[in-house]
Design a protein that fits this description.
CATH class of the largest domain: Alpha Beta
CATH superfamily of the largest domain: Glycogen Phosphorylase B
Low-confidence stretches: none
CATH architecture of the largest domain: 3-Layer(aba) Sandwich
Oligomer: single chain
Helix content: 40-55%
Largest sheet: 7 strands, parallel
GO biological process, one term: carbohydrate metabolic process
Strand content: 5-15%
InterPro entries: EryCIII-like_C, Glycosyltransferase_28, GlycoTrans_28_N, UDP_glucos_trans
Protein name: Glycosyltransferase family 1 protein
CATH topology of the largest domain: Rossmann fold
Strand order of the largest sheet: 3-2-1-4-5-6-7
GO molecular function: hexosyltransferase activity; UDP-glycosyltransferase activity
Keywords: Transferase
Number of domains: 2
Length: 443
């Protein structure tokens, strides 16, 4: 019997970047392939608790705050002010470390799947010569002139309907690409040092040109963001990568939360995911007061510091905790108010619940705009999220039309392939015939 094939998955970021890769790991593992996930050390426990092999991938949290000379909250505050922070201070500053760790983890692997933003891992995949798939977890990272993402501060015409509008959007896209490439000197110097051929691709954002060395997956619903006509020629958009924990390690709703949920009407759930609690500001205080003004029950999923503070002031119609599984909680909510991270957005879409999105940075404004445009919820700028605006928006969300639209959308995405498309690809490049939809194969 031959050696089992092995797939390396390399990712970086918050839990919203880790959980999708765990979901891919489970899908690939079900096909009889071995899987290793390379990620920062702070996520080692989350990965290994799922029975998935772990490999270290720098930078770690301490590497980043040490290089910046600030604490973690300070790093997040810098990130909110500088749209190029992640590229400059993480992906490029630690380019060599990420490259070395990915290449080390790739020893013995038969194929590599990388987070499309993780330039060091993408370079290592190229240098390894192994079959490679790049994954975009959000539509913003495939900049389109035909169907553009809301990309602050880029002044796209979001719904172009003329040749002039398309031409204008192409010009905007070109300026974005130029701006990114002006920051990529370290990247190109490192490529030359590795002896890799010269390239005009920035490996950070893909602007629709085919990269023959890899395949490209947009792991989100085509109903949320269809594949665009000017997107990468080698790209498929099969669906969201919903993360299902193994039964033996599954995090359940706590007994106290379950009792609260079933002791009254469906509550509003307020959450800022795993990132934004570091810079929550007055989000939870505004949220609590808005829910009270509307006479609604509320659950506040807050960071540890906020949760400790809020516990002292809640009443019988409010519940505070630092975490809870979104896939179990959201279907029991009346609506979900959150920061717009792609993982949280996807879980609310799957639960069929209206959403109010209050974006902080990055791809989050685009998710709010897409939810609004689809009639599944509303979006408010962070600077506009106050008692008056939150109360008015939440009151509007309780119109039955949003709930009906959200439930219909949830039904429509249940048949999508999501991570199974990547599992098909892994089987295919490993020499095993894939069993899912042939239209989704890219190998």
């Amino acid at each position: 019997m031959g050696k089992r094939k092995r797939i390396l998955l390399a990712t970086f970021g918050t839990l919203g970047d880790i959980y999708p890769f765990i979901a891919v790991a489970h899908a690939v593992s079900r096909r009889g392939l071995d899987v290793v996930v390379a990620a920062p050390e702070m996520h080692k426990g989350s990965i290994e608790r799922e029975g998935v092999a772990y490999a270290r991938l720098r930078p770690h949290e301490n590497d980043i705050v040490g290089a910046l000379g600030v604490d973690l909250a300070g790093a997040f505050r810098i990130m909110l002010k500088n749209p190029y922070f992640i590229l400059d201070e993480i992906y490029l500053r630690f380019l060599a470390e990420t490259y070395d760790d990915t290449l080390a983890a790739a020893k013995g692997a038969d194929a590599i799947v990388t987070h499309n933003l993780l330039v060091g891992a993408n370079l290592a995949a190229e240098a390894s010569g192994l079959p490679t798939a790049r994954v975009a977890l959000a539509p913003l990272y495939v900049q389109s002139a035909v169907s553009p993402s809301l990309t602050p501060p880029a002044p796209y015409i979001l719904q172009p309907n003329s040749r002039a509008a398309f031409g204008y959007n192409k010009l905007v896209r070109s300026f974005i690409r130029t701006g990114v490439n002006m920051r990529m000197k370290r990247f190109h110097s490192f490529r030359r040092a590795l002896g890799l051929p010269r390239t005009d691709e920035d490996f950070f954002l893909d602007f629709g040109r085919k990269n023959g060395a890899s395949n490209f997956f947009g792991l989100y619903s085509p109903r949320f963001a269809p594949r665009t006509a000017d997107g990468p020629a080698n790209m498929v958009v099969p669906g969201f990568p919903f993360y299902e924990r193994r039964d033996e390690g599954r995090r359940r709703l706590s007994e106290s939360l379950r009792i609260f949920l079933f002791s009254g009407s469906a509550p509003i759930v307020f959450t800022l995911g795993s990132f934004a609690p570091q810079v929550s500001g007055d989000f939870y205080d505004v949220s609590l007061n808005a829910a009270r003004a509307l006479g609604r029950r509320a659950i506040l999923l807050a960071g540890t510091k906020d949760a400790a503070r809020l516990l002292a002031s809640i009443g019988p119609n409010e519940f505070v905790c630092s975490e809870a599984p979104h896939d179990e909680l959201f279907p029991l909510a009346s609506c979900v108010v959150h920061h717009g991270g792609i993982g949280t957005t996807a879980q609310a879409l799957r639960a069929g619940r209206p959403q109010l999105i209050v974006p902080f940075f990055g791809d989050q404004p685009d998710h709010g705009e897409r939810v609004r445009r689809l009639g599944l919820g509303l979006a408010l700028k962070l600077s506009s999220y106050n008692f008056r605006s939150a109360t008015r928006a939440l009151g509007e969300l309780f119109d039955g039309g949003y709930l009906r639209a959200a439930q219909e959308f949830a039904q429509s995405i249940r048949a999508e392939h999501g991570v199974e498309a990547l599992a098909d690809w892994a089987e295919c490049v490993s020499g095993v015939a894939p069993t899912s939809d042939p239209a989704l194969r890219l190998c």
